[in-house]
Amino acid sequence: MLLLPWLIFHALDAIAQLPVFDEFDVNLPESTYERFAPLAEAGDPEVQHFLGYMYFYGEGVELDYDKAHYWFHEAAEDGELKSMRNLGLFHANGVHRVPVNYYDPREANLWFSLAAAGSGDSRVSSLAAAHYDNFLAPGVDELLEATPRNSVGETVYFAYCAGCHGFDGKSSYSRVPSFALGESLEKADSLLVTNITRALNPWPHPVADIPRDALLATLAFVRDQLGAQPPQARLSDELMMRGSSAPKVDRAKIRQGEKIYLQFCGGCHGFNGISAYVYSPSFALGERMHKSDEELAASIRNGRGEMPSWEFTLKPPQIEALVSFIRTFEQAYQRGIGNSLRSDPEQFFRFTPKSLLGPGQMHDLPSGKQVQ
Predict the structure, then answer these.
(1) pLDDT by residue (tens digit) across 154-207?
(2) Dihedral through CA 8, CA 14, CA 15, CA 17, nearest 10?
(3) How far is the CA of 45 from the CAs of 48, 78, 119, in angstroms?
(4) Class of 251-370 per CATH?
(5) 123-235, what's its fold?
(6) So where are the chain's domains?
(7) Contact 265/287 with Cβ under 8 angstroms?
């Protein structure tokens, strides 16, 4: 007889220890934007950067460059390096989709330089820190007046060039020459000066007011101090670490995986790797990327969580190609907004999450014959 009251008492005590769910808890977010927006509003710079990326590519939200610029600024001002680089691209006229009213070479140079100053390479960041005041200088004349004649080339390079070409001569971006590798230095000084002053490429050239003799001094500094490294030191640190054992990228497989992804996966996971639903991982954020290729392939074959099985739609080599392509999203996100925008294909598949399907309903998956 004493056992029943004892059980009731402990059952009630156990219930009292359960977490209490308020209205916010039970109204869980359904979209990726709803999932992250409160964190961005609360001041998380990494999430603010992500919202900027969402608005820039129109993934999970309507494309809006003003809002993208706003969130990149919020994150950059709190020290988010990826947002600093993206603001540099925003203002550099280096991404053709960005409205021309954002073009501002001085702003571009500032944010590129600040990103380099905060890099994880202590030697690079110390160089940038030493010249911090120079790339914040209000004007060229003031900067040159305060610079000894024998330091003009060095000062101009670190103030106006190093943000893109690298404080150590190793460029931050693939489309910018690395002087430490000797790139572009085979050209004559007169041609290089002409290219700089005419801005023959879309990258920022805040050099319109720099006298020709100062530009020539800058080229002399580049040739003598940055481009004169011994051959074994000209490879970037990344290439030196990888050496000759670096795995080859199968571009044909990645292109095949991209074609499959856009048709069957992008509708839910996002055409630029940002998912539409909280149920679907955002590959741009690296979600699920800690899994092995075999584990990712198994999830695609068998289905996972809200996602149906694709075993009877995609063949094993197609799933393998799909996994290879999925791996590229996180790298693209880290590189920033210089990536090409993937538009929605004419036809693509988007499934209804399992939790929203009615009793007995099943996904109407497309036939595998649609994939060549």
Answers:
(1) 998 988 888 888 888 888 777 788 898 888 888 888 888 887 777 655 555 556
(2) 150
(3) 5, 6, 16
(4) mainly alpha
(5) Cytochrome Bc1 Complex; Chain D, domain 2 (1.10.760)
(6) 123-235, 251-370
(7) no
